[in-house]
Amino acid sequence: MTASRRTFAIISHPDAGKTTLTEKLLLQGGAIHLAGQVKARGQARRARSDWMKIEQQRGISVTSSVMTFERTDADGNTITFNLLDTPGHEDFSEDTYRTLTAVDSAIMVIDAAKGIEPQTRKLFEVCRLRSVPIITFVNKVDREGRACFDLLDEVADVLALDVCPMSWPVGMGGLFQGILDLKSGRVSRPEGGSKEFLGKVDEDVELPGEVAEEIELARAGYPEFDIEAYRGGDLTPVFFGSALKNFGVVELIDAIAKFAPPPRPQPTEAGPVDPGHKEVTGFIFKVQANMDPMHRDRIAFMRLVSGTFKRGMKLTPSGLGKPIAVHSPILFFAQDREIADSAEPGDIIGIPNHGTLRVGDTLSEKNQIRFTGLPNFAPEILRRVALKDPTKTKQLRKALDDLSEEGVIQVFYPEIGSQWIVGVVGQLQLDVLISRLEAEYKVEAMLEASPFDTARWIKGSDKALRDFADFNKMNLAKDRDGDPVFMAKSAWDVGYQQERNPDLTFSATKER
Fold it and tell me: Domain limits at 28?
């Protein structure tokens, strides 16, 4: 069963076509039945996914979601695809990073007119840190774009990857005539009033002279596809297409089924855990609260790493120490949810809970394993939180704890002073914070300038920490776990304290 799982994400710069490609992949997999269901802004869509007020107002997605669908491959095998959608907005890199810890491969979407954009590069580097193999999809070739060779060379140069084109556009923009499969020589041609691909494939097509020359150069000038180089993160197969017009989507999903790795071993403190390990283990990479504000629900998303999970079994969260029975695990099929009776390595299950599960928690049968690699990052923006109604202090504390559990914000409680400080990676997270405080917790708050510029987790012996605290009480805080944090007024301040306190470490990351 494990060999039939493909758990992957789509990464791209905003507006490169990720949402449209997601929709077409789900359409091909039969998970949705009408084009437009993923990105529709109607009431039904909002009830299912765009539940957050700020998402409805701005028309953007600021949460990660999971979509599972099945498809039969060319050999008649049923492949289960777990597609983890990631926030496309550049301010959500931390949530996106955690999602990318839960996948085995990724599709990188590039706009044919724009090439590699900043967010694409940032997300690619995250994948590289974990050696996540990448399939590249050059989108929007039915519009005017850059020359294919320029795009391929840019991927190779900027990302330091070998590239292997698997398909080639027959013309671009107004001259677009279809997509050629370089291996089979078959051309998928436009058909119908909308020029959408509806299944017409020709062989032995006479290609325009310029295109024929390009294809010969492409076949001669790039390395052949090597599955080991791809799975090692050294080579990217490149597909050209148009998600909007449904060109190249079938070839893309076939490539994921054929080439993308099944569930991979995951790192722990004692070494990697293989999917074939019999004990049921997994880790929480995301927590989403209040998906239904009427019921104050909270769902923890668990990537199953090993073993066969059965509904009702007891697992012990590393952060809790006592076992919990998982009675109502959820599988996500596009917009629908189903109770999961069982799950295999690579699957993502949602576990309803009341705050007992947190991002970074390991769940296991014996509580002897701890997965690693899900860090918190030092915030880039710090703000003080001021209540408009001082009697709502208790509600604010609950809200900040909830939202920090989700990873939307980090919260710091100063040793001196009563105003709590929130830290975020990007500005949009502050807007999300204020919106959710009001909509979900009925708390009106303002954000004020903080006297601090950055934060660092500090570690050392008890004596070294006590000595440091004696002289720096005004600059010390605790995070929500109670760990000590140095609140610095500048990067220079951090360097100065590091020099003066060689027995302490000042870290910009904290692993959960």
Answer: 10-61+104-259
Q: In terms of DSSP H, where are the helices of 317-461?
A: 393-406, 427-441
Amino acid of residue 25: L
- 47-56, 438-447, 468-477, 487-496: which range is least confident on average? 47-56
Sheet order of strands, 421-424 included: 445-449, 381-387, 421-424, 410-414, 476-479, 484-488, 454-459, 505-507
**Binding residue per annotation — 86?**
yes
- What is the spatial distance between Cα 468 and Cα 486, in angstroms, rounded to a whole number? 10
Q: How far apart are the two ends of the chain, measured CA to CA in Å?
A: 30
7 known ligand binder: no
89 marked as part of a ligand binding site: yes
Residues 467 and 445 reside in one and the same domain? yes
141 in a known ligand binding site: yes
445, part of any domain: yes
Residue 384 lies in a domain: yes
Q: Are 301 and 382 within one domain? A: no
191 & 287 share domain = no
Q: What is the CATH number of the domain that holds 285?
A: 3.40.50.300
Q: Is 85 annotated as a binding residue?
A: yes
Please tell me whether residues 345 and 464 are part of one structural domain: no
Residue type at 500 in one-letter notation:
R
Residue 327 assigned as binding residue:
no
Taking the C-alpha atoms of residue 469 and residue 486, their distance in angstroms, rounded to an integer, is: 10
Digit-coded pLDDT (tens) for 314-373: 999 987 778 999 999 988 765 577 888 999 999 999 998 877 888 889 999 999 999 987
Both 308 and 348 in a single domain?
Answer: yes
Last residue of a domain, one of 311, 334, 364: 364
User: Can you tell me the distance from the alpha carbon of 155 to that of 164, in angstroms, rounded to the nearest whole number?
Assistant: 11
Whether 79 maps to a domain, the answer reads: no
Number of folded domains that form the chain:
3
15 is in an annotated binding site: yes
> Which residue's structure tokens are 């855990």?
273
DSSP string, 115-142: BS-HHHHHHHHHHHHTT--EEEEEE-TT
Mean pLDDT within 96-122? 90
- Contact between 286 and 322 under an 8 Å Cβ cutoff? The reply is no
| pLDDT (average), residues 227-249 | 95
* Same domain membership, residue 476 and residue 335: no
13 assigned ligand-binding residue: yes
Report yes or no on 270 lying in a domain: no
Is residue 88 a known part of a binding site? yes
Q: What is the pLDDT of residues 136-164, one digit of tens each?
A: 999 999 999 999 999 999 999 999 999 99
12 is in an annotated binding site: yes
238 and 296 both lie in a single domain: no
